[in-house]
Amino acid sequence: MSSQLYAFGRLAHRRWRLVMLVWVLVLAGAGTAAAALSAGTTNSFSIPGTESQEALDRLSATFPQVSGSSAQVVAVAADGDVRDETGSVAEVVDALEGLQDVAAVAPVLAEDGTLLPEAQVSDDGSTLLVTAQLDLGRDEVTEETTDALLEVVDGASTDAVTWTAGGDAFQAETVALGATELVGLLVAGVVLTLTLGSLLAAGMPLVTAVVGVATAMALVFAATSVVELSSTAPLLAVMIGIAVGIDYALFVLARHREQLAEGLDPEESTGRAVATAGSAVVFAGLTVMIALAGLSVAGIPFLTVMGITAALAVAVAVVVALTLLPAIMGAFGPRLRPRAPRAGRTRRGGRAGRTGSPAATWVRLVTRRPLVTVVVVTAALLTAAVPALDLRLALPDAGTGAQGTPSRDTYDLLSEEFGPGSNGPLVVTGDIVASTDPLGLVAAVREDIEALDGVAAVPLATPNEGADTMIVQVVPEGGPTSDETRELVRELRELRPQIEDEHGVTIAVTGATAVGIDVSDRLLEALLPFVLLVVGLSLVLLAMVFRSVWVPVKAAVGYLLSIGAALGAVVAVYQWGWLEGPLHTVDTGPVISFMPILLLGILFGLAMDYEVFLVSRIREHYVHGGDARAAVRTGFASAAKVVAAAAVIMFAVFAAFVPEGDATLQPIALGLAVGVFVDAFLVRMTLVPAALALLGERAWWLPGWLDRLLPSFDVEGEGIGHQLRLQDWPSPDAGPGAFAEGLEVTVAGRDGEHVLLGPVSLAVPPGHLLLAEGGDRVARTALAMVLAGRTRPSAGDVKVAGAVLPQQAGTARRDVGLLRAVDEADPVAAAARLLGGRSPVRVLVVENLELVPEPEVRQALVDTLADACRDLGAAVVVTCDSTTAGSLVVADDVPASRLDLASLPAVAPAPAPTGDPADDGVQDDRDVLVPGAIPAELSPSVVGGPRP
């Protein structure tokens, strides 16, 4: 991947005008689509398959009058007795009944104009509740409907009686961006300026992040024409998109400026930055997207859509960092090069500069007594997680709305006058089609329900007009999100067998409150599977990246500690009321149900970001330096500044959504802000270096069988370094031949690694033919497959047709032909097609020529290959046994050489390293070279010296 990113980075730098134009067109197209297709958002939360939702769906067919949303209209008499205001009551009831979307209004007035005995009047007589049932579902209520309801109550309010309207018809107000969120961008700009030391460079991540978020949001709103989207989802995507967009651009831009400071050409630096830091950005972005998409494991549609929406924002941020950012780098070119340091000062980034830096001082402090650091940090984070044990979940309702809104005022008024349960009545329904006395049956069920603890009132119990479905409205003593109401729902469902035995009817509990409880329970059940998913995913991904067992384990433990601390902070603030004033807490109570699982998914991806960017530098220094504990210090010092800046930016973006957010978003934003801070500064920058120093060499241990099983992920772009080192190897004018040095192919066996081939070196320039003869047939096959780009070399440097293997294996397969002569009816014709077709190969590899039984065919094939070398300048490699090689005649005018594979080590387990760098257990390349293996004109002693 790094090879493709390197090429694309250079291309975007060179064609920056075209790339910018494409992004302008993409943004304009997405914006046009959003304007034309957007269907808006909703605050409806439901889970298909739950008892409450299924019962609600049945009611919509059999008893539609009670299945839809409802409005609660409340009258408060100024003189203290609402019975004296029946004229106003009649006016409001008539107006409500005349509204288009109102299906029915609960009767409150008798024919003589007095209040009915069953009318809901407060104990002091000052307040009357009128319920208007709508023929719309909660997610179908439009702004026009609620405006019409508010118009009725506003018009009826006088000095004598005040009317308000609320209920589940009034969804929580749509979340919108405010000026407060700009504070996050301002803090990000300041941090970027301090980190990069340039206003010009600091502005680039901000610009790319805004472009990415704007594009993602346009696509999201365009998709609302076919997908139902909650109002929280777009803002969550904005929050995440801005944070990761700035961070990803910062990582790439910081690497680019480091390389410019070292004197690298701007275009070359862009390519390398995109290949190295860009590879880490791709890995980090994929990790976040997988975690967000993994929210679908809960099986909850609105949560799945929310996760995919946020994942889309992350995906766009990755694409912007790899395309638009390199183009902007190209537009400014050398102007992004940092200023030269003043005389007498060490250039920033040099070893001397790092020795006394705050990062170097900090890492020395935390690794001086690593065990003490690990114990102290772990104990502190476990203590911070204690409040999380009291976590309670619920869906938002009108009680979480902003103070002063009609729905919140109505909610508070009902709670005060009629009890908190009046805001969340339950509905018990059942099929009574077999009953001969539906009224008596409903009355009997009502008596059983009234006998339960926690029931404040049963204001309504009736069959429908067809007498096939009953409903019993139950007002709990507790509020919609209270533990008392949750317990009452459980008791009602436990009452089902008794009612079925006594009355022959199977009941179900539904209503908005029951739906919210079922959603919360389903989300709580999904937490453990999701934790196992993301932790397991982190173990596999990090083992792939760092080739270690302990690094992933340590990362997973740190992630769980960060999650615990973040959840603890959310519970302390939004359930216990800590810092309620400074944080402008809208409401205290249960946390929104999907906050924990969202926090788990998002923080997982962000934690892996910091783990990758920090530990990859440590691993890089370990691989090159050898001393594990010294690598922790040097690697940390070289990466800590950028990681700290990224964490501060992300913290600022998330924290900016806390003071002015709604009750839905506030706990999510606070959890993410605390989680990012804890994970970056206490876990990744304190616990991680201490743990790695404590483990020493063992930190990088990986069993051989697991190493072979796990695919390799070049997250730090090491492959592009290998490719660039071999760019002019074996010489700048060597041409598209076949070259190898120290080539080795191994295979895993039950008793360890077995060497199939090598180490071997060879050089076949264009127009040359090499006979690789002798040895084991398996070794010859391995050589042919590697040179043809079909198998990865286990060790060594290989370059075929100008493509470095394995990084450019795709290019090699396009330009290198592999001829298995034994599989061809006419191998001569097959070779002619490969060498002279519409897209002729530049290198041809013939595998095990001895398997062609006819000597004359073998010779004819060699003659064809020789002609191709002489006339077409092709490079040809033929593998065969020694007997066949001895019988072949190559034309005198074709440069030919032989490689005796029999002189290579026999197939045997590879010796284990001794630990001495001078004695690595591998035979030196020169020990297996044979005369003629490398033509004299391309010998390192003649052309360009040794390989770089």
How is this structure best described in words?
The protein has 948 residues and is an alpha/beta fold. Among the domains are: 2-37 and 176-384 and 519-700, no CATH class; 727-938, P-loop containing nucleotide triphosphate hydrolases (Rossmann fold). It contains 31 helices and 20 strands. Strands 1, 2, 3, 4 and 5 form a 5-stranded antiparallel β-sheet that branches. A 5-stranded parallel β-sheet has the order 17-18-19-14-20, sandwiched between helices. Strands 8-9-7-10 form a 4-stranded antiparallel β-sheet, sandwiched between helices. The protein is elongated, with a radius of gyration of 36 Å. The chain starts with a helix and ends in a 48-residue tail after the last strand.
Summarize this structure as a short list of keywords or feature phrases:
948 residues; alpha/beta; Rossmann fold; five-stranded antiparallel sheet; five-stranded parallel sheet; 53% helix; disordered C terminus
Summarize the structure.
It is a multi-pass membrane protein. This protein is 53% helix and 13% strand. With 948 residues, the protein is an alpha/beta fold.
Q: How is the secondary structure organized here?
A:
Layout: H1 2-14, H2 16-37, H3 51-62, H4 64-67, E1 70-77, H5 86-97, E2 102-105, E3 120-121, E4 127-134, H6 143-156, E5 161-166, H7 181-196, H8 199-223, H9 232-261, H10 266-293, H11 301-322, H12 324-332, H13 351-355, H14 358-368, H15 370-384, E6 393-394, H16 406-418, E7 426-431, H17 438-450, E8 455-463, E9 469-476, H18 483-494, H19 496-503, E10 507-510, H20 512-546, H21 550-574, E11 591-592, H22 595-625, H23 628-655, H24 665-695, H25 704-709, H26 718-725, E12 738-749, E13 752-764, E14 769-773, H27 777-787, E15 795-800, E16 803-805, H28 809-815, E17 816-820, H29 827-836, E18 843-847, H30 855-872, E19 875-880, H31 882-887, E20 896-900
Parallel strand pairs: 6-11, 14-19, 14-20, 17-18, 18-19
Antiparallel strand pairs: 1-4, 1-5, 2-4, 3-4, 7-9, 7-10, 8-9, 12-13, 12-15, 15-16
Helix pairs in contact: 1-2, 1-10, 1-12, 2-8, 2-12, 5-6, 7-8, 7-23, 8-9, 8-11, 9-10, 9-11, 9-23, 10-11, 10-22, 14-23, 14-24, 15-21, 15-24, 20-21, 20-22, 21-22, 21-24, 22-23, 22-24, 23-24, 29-30
